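A quick aside before the break. I want you to see a complete sequence-to-structure record at least once, exactly as it would be stored in a machine-readable document. Don't worry about memorizing anything.
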Amino acid sequence: MSECGDRGESLRIDRLLWMLRLAKSRSAAQEIVGSGHIRRNGIRVTRMSQPVCAGDVLTVPLGRAIRVIELASLPTRRGPALEAQSHYRELGSGGHIGETVTPALDDPDMRP
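That is the input. The structure line, written in tokens, reads:
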């Protein structure tokens, strides 16, 4: 049985990053995965062939930013940017590496 269980098809994570235009080339996607900083559903991805499925949440460091995305569906090709973006939803940004997060002052729950 695949790691996706009853959720259906899967796609290699390196190929997915390339198809979603999160990496310029497949080899660049493999470098991102090989760095060991990507997480799938909170678990570190340790191999290029790690399958990902629709509904998975990926945490991806890109440059100095960290992106958290949920896969709505799996792409069938590497299309234009708008098509690629239609396959995932941004859950939020983890911010920039080395950045400290401070609460908004206009949020009444965060006031001292």
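Two observations worth writing down. The chain has a mean pLDDT of 83. The chain has three helices and seven strands. We'll return to this after the break.
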